[in-house]
């Protein structure tokens, strides 16, 4: 009997086996790709969930930090004008504190006001038992070397504060707080009073809405030569 491959040269058993194998493997490949895609999407969702849990995304919930900046609509121009009387007056009102904090964020120096607020909260502790954990948190966040929000303190003030942290009392951070307060009062506060954010509040404007600005260059008569007015816009 002759070889069937010679009688039917178009018959290719190897190719047939390959096709059958491909048909069997194709669903498995699709299923594996589907699982891989689902796994990747799940990992992205998990990463996003962890990211949203970070403190940066919940600033209003952070202890010792002011809440969301007060909207300009809730601040009268008369109230804003009073903030210019003194730095104490500005910080004594929540709206003023929030506005000043917003300004410091534009200068990337919000750690100063956050430290001051944390110290104010620390001094409100009712028992000695509350002082130690609060003092440790403040020290590790704002004072120790390479702290995540290290404030600018002179060597002597930092050394005294570091020594007192072992047995904290109500006045442990007074020297450091006063130093940061004077820094803000003499440096940041005058710039705040000259800032667009504050001036808009005084004029009763909403700082969240950009004000119209003139073009960066002056127009000349030549700019309008040959241009006909378009009355269709009126």
From TrEMBL:
SMART domains per UniProt: RGS (SM00315)
Domain called RGS: residue spans: 86-202
UniProt xrefs under Gene3D superfamilies: 1.10.196.10, Regulator of G-protein Signalling 4, domain 2
PROSITE patterns: RGS
Keyword GTP-binding: no
Keywords for the protein's UniProt record, in alphabetical order: Signal transduction inhibitor
An example Gene Ontology biological process: negative regulation of signal transduction
Record protein name field: RGS18 protein
Protein species of origin: Pampusana beccarii (Western bronze ground-dove)
